[in-house]
Amino acid sequence: MAFTGTRRDYGLLGLDAKAAVENGLASAKWYSCPIGRKELKEFMRRSDGPALRDTALWFGLLAFSGGAGVALWGSWWAVLPFAVYGVLYGSASDSRWHECGHGTAFKTRWMNDVLYNVASFMVFREPTIWRWSHTRHHTDTVIVGLDPEFNVMRPADVLAILLNVFAFKNVVLGFKQLVLHASGRVDAEEATFIPDMERPKVFRTARIWLALFALVVLACVLTHSVLPAMLIGLPTMYGAWLQLLFGLTQHAGLDEDVLDHRLNSRTVMMNPVFRFLYWNMNYHIEHHMFPMVPYHALPRLHEVIKHDCPKPYPSLYAAFAEIIPAVLRQAKDPTYFVRRELPSRAKPLDLQPAGPGMVAAE
Amino acid sequence: MAWVRACATDEIDEEDVARFDQGDRTFAIYHSPEDAFYATDGLCTHQAIHLADGLVMDHTIECPKHNGRFDYRDGKALGAPVCVNLRTYPVKVEDGVVLVDVG
């Protein structure tokens, strides 16, 4: 039975956006687990080493699987290497885009910027648009009308989720926006979070991307083969399924409009292969609470604050055992959500830890 | 000139930052790797987050909320999501005390 009640307005220009501002939910003070300044500084410390190692391994695996796919092209055996290549290209790029967007993957700024732009293209997210959208996501995480990065709204649109198993919805909408930006415009919602001075960059990048996609199409026409697109462009879609699985664990089914990441985000334990592909974003409470901590330090941060957080999910399977029924129920009942239990010794919401480094005026 | 005492020099580690409040104003005091001290407005120009909770790397302060970066020596915004420079204030050190001209 389809939902027939009153819908909340998730648009950035709608009534719920206005209500969120009036209710003090915009750019609000969020709960932060107590942690000493010196300890946090250690976690925040930047380094090029881990990301250089992981990036070399990532591109090595891309080259190997892509090369094997090309070598086996024409036989059904090519499906196997392209399945691997697709996940590396269309799913692992999501976490590289994310971490480099925060500027925390590498210590060296240009390395973050280069990988951010490459990964943005692979995951098909326009770099400037999504940098600002993600900034807003961190300011107003899962606040209705303010967060532009909801992946499951209520009532849940199950068809839209299924369409993104192969990024179909994302790519169709993304191309529409790409053409808009290449024509020198942003839409009204984008205008709420992208400053005027950043817009020429949006337009220039959109034109470059369109030219790159045109070159891929030209290569396919000239070679009478879809193989060039199998290497550049299409893996954004055929390799997107793992990105969707990972992404849904972040917030789907949990509460909205709460100023506490422990209640609207999940930390899920994952195996080392998934954590490599996802760059430890399974520690999502930790990431949202302390976004300056690089991905390689999140497991250690988790150990320090876990006493103040809900119990983490022991596996991806355990997370989906909760998410699937919750989302199906939200398709019919948008008031439903999974209420996370805080540990009995956790600090209550209204007690904010003292700001570190406070120096009183005389 | 309105020099006020912000803190003792040994209250801030090298390559770190501390918050200093005076009345309804808030400042960030920096201790650079060369043992020099600097002062800026305490809140990020992007979304009014306390920079003293952020990370100092060489001569850069990174905002703890959105990772926007400034050069704390001249307040220059170093790229999105920060687009507006930070105001800086003169600093001097006398007898182990950091003084800031908040005027």
TrEMBL record, chain A:
<keyword id="KW-1133">Transmembrane helix</keyword>
<feature type="transmembrane region" description="Helical">
    <location>
        <begin position="208"/>
        <end position="227"/>
    </location>
</feature>
<keyword id="KW-0472">Membrane</keyword>
<dbReference type="GO" id="GO:0016020">
    <property type="term" value="C:membrane"/>
</dbReference>
<keyword id="KW-0812">Transmembrane</keyword>
<feature type="transmembrane region" description="Helical">
    <location>
        <begin position="55"/>
        <end position="79"/>
    </location>
</feature>
<dbReference type="Pfam" id="PF00487">
    <property type="entry name" value="FA_desaturase"/>
</dbReference>
<dbReference type="GO" id="GO:0016717">
    <property type="term" value="F:oxidoreductase activity, acting on paired donors, with oxidation of a pair of donors resulting in the reduction of molecular oxygen to two molecules of water"/>
</dbReference>
<dbReference type="InterPro" id="IPR012171">
    <property type="entry name" value="Fatty_acid_desaturase"/>
</dbReference>
<feature type="domain" description="Fatty acid desaturase">
    <location>
        <begin position="75"/>
        <end position="315"/>
    </location>
</feature>
<feature type="transmembrane region" description="Helical">
    <location>
        <begin position="158"/>
        <end position="175"/>
    </location>
</feature>
<dbReference type="InterPro" id="IPR005804">
    <property type="entry name" value="FA_desaturase_dom"/>
</dbReference>
<dbReference type="GO" id="GO:0008610">
    <property type="term" value="P:lipid biosynthetic process"/>
</dbReference>
<dbReference type="InterPro" id="IPR039393">
    <property type="entry name" value="Rhizopine-oxygenase-like"/>
</dbReference>
<protein>
    <submittedName>
        <fullName>Fatty acid desaturase</fullName>
    </submittedName>
</protein>
TrEMBL record, chain B:
<dbReference type="Pfam" id="PF00355">
    <property type="entry name" value="Rieske"/>
</dbReference>
<dbReference type="GO" id="GO:0051537">
    <property type="term" value="F:2 iron, 2 sulfur cluster binding"/>
</dbReference>
<protein>
    <submittedName>
        <fullName>Rieske family ferredoxin</fullName>
    </submittedName>
</protein>
<dbReference type="GO" id="GO:0046872">
    <property type="term" value="F:metal ion binding"/>
</dbReference>
<keyword id="KW-0479">Metal-binding</keyword>
<keyword id="KW-0408">Iron</keyword>
<comment type="similarity">
    <text>Belongs to the bacterial ring-hydroxylating dioxygenase ferredoxin component family.</text>
</comment>
<keyword id="KW-0411">Iron-sulfur</keyword>
<dbReference type="InterPro" id="IPR017941">
    <property type="entry name" value="Rieske_2Fe-2S"/>
</dbReference>
<dbReference type="InterPro" id="IPR036922">
    <property type="entry name" value="Rieske_2Fe-2S_sf"/>
</dbReference>
<keyword id="KW-0001">2Fe-2S</keyword>
<feature type="domain" description="Rieske">
    <location>
        <begin position="4"/>
        <end position="100"/>
    </location>
</feature>
<dbReference type="InterPro" id="IPR012747">
    <property type="entry name" value="MocE_2FeS"/>
</dbReference>
